[in-house]
Amino acid sequence: MTAYSELMSFQRTTEALAQIAGRLGWDQETMMPRGAAAQRGDEMAAIEEVLHARRTDPRIADWLEKAVAVDPASHANLRKIRRAFERNIRVPPLLAAELARVTSVAQGVWAEARAKEDVGAFLPVLEQVVKLRREEGQALAQGGDVYDALLNDYEPGAKAADLAAMFGKLRPRLVALREAVLAAEPAPVLAGAFDEAGQLALSRELALAFGYDLDRGRIDKAVHPFSSGSGADVRITTRTNPVDPFNCFYSTIHEVGHAAYEQGIAPEHALTPVGQGVSMGVHESQSRIYENQIGRSRAFTGWLFGRMRDVFGDFGVSDEETFYRAVNRVHDGFIRTEADEVQYNLHVLLRFDLEQALMRGDLLVGDLEAAWNDRFLADFGFAVDKPSNGCLQDVHWSVGLFGYFPTYTLGNVYAGCLHQAMRAAIPDLDDDLARGDTSRATGWLRAAVQVHGGLHEPVDLIAGAVGFAPGEGPLLDYLEAKFGGLYGI
Length: 489
Ligand code: ZN
Fold this sequence. Notes:
Layout (H helix, E strand, L loop, with lengths): L2 H28 L6 H19 L3 H8 L5 H19 L2 H23 L3 H23 L4 H6 L8 H24 L12 H14 L9 E3 L5 E2 L6 E4 L6 H20 L15 H15 L3 H15 L7 H8 L16 H17 L7 H13 L24 H21 L3 H5 L5 H10 L9 H9 L6 H14 L3
Parallel strand pairs: 1-3
Antiparallel strand pairs: 2-3
The protein binds zinc ion (ZN).
């Protein structure tokens, strides 16, 4: 055996174990009996221990030294294995163990502090998480930028300074668009009865309409929608809300976007580093273009209106145009995950700026709530009323996910670029969407993005797909045109 084939044989087993660990996580959110929580913790810790040992196995260094790439896939696999190995051996084992311990405690503390609206109860453990992640970032950065080192776990090759420059151009136009939209006449809301069985049946129909392969996936209910797995087993979850069926439908379409990406990767890459979505930003570009640019388009919502009337009868909206406005309703809100297309990125940019300041030591944990509330007032024009609507609303920081938030907005920026290129390639796409047929859109995304898996670096992948250097322009143009039309501004 050559060094490359020995390395890949070892890697395939590691990848298979990682898939198993992921499936344990899926099970925990969907099927696991309540009384199994403590045992499941032990089971997860056991498999993580095995994974950590494999990911830092010294034989990897020998194989990497001798292995020779012969084609683009082996070249990309070696690049990814080398990057991950160097990352994993840079973090001292004691620090890794302490981070795992503190973040698992912090998640529980966060949940309780949020329930009690008590920021003070969360800050001491957040202080520990920030300190440990900063130490980890320093170990990874080796003299370079600490925040960039953390960001690269989620978005390989990205630099905070580049993102900040791009987001700096997004923010003022989004704030202006938000103000103009909210000054206009408000959009209608649905008024009807939306039974759970009907919501689940229609969400399944939507998943199929967006190309989700149920032979290699399944849909279950969970508290928070997510997708999990890659290759031949990619599962999604959804949830229902008796008064808001859009929550169910659009979170399903969103997760189908993530799942379709994993299902769309060329099968020969399965259980190799290339056989997974290349970054969180690219992943989010797929979920968001499915959900928004396609799923919330005028043409597609025309079809959805008819299907919803078939399933639920009358819900107080008489025509497709009014329905389109209801789907894309913009209204004040505190919560990122519930935000519309206009305001979503403003929520993310707030967190991006605050978490950079925390990591760089420019903002003390004790000043976080005040900084959050000041920034929220500046961008949204009204004050945070309670911590669960403010700095306690997202789980991310409690589990140490610093560097993750900007990938949400980067994903929207990429979705804007992909949408512009897709519309140019398929000028009559709306004819299909108006019949509920997304196959040419999802087929274009599959060929342009999904099939490549991790073969290319994220920016190169998007640039290759769209034919220009990705930037914020297409997203802003799309949002201003869409919501300008919807709100007559
Ligand atoms: Zn997502």
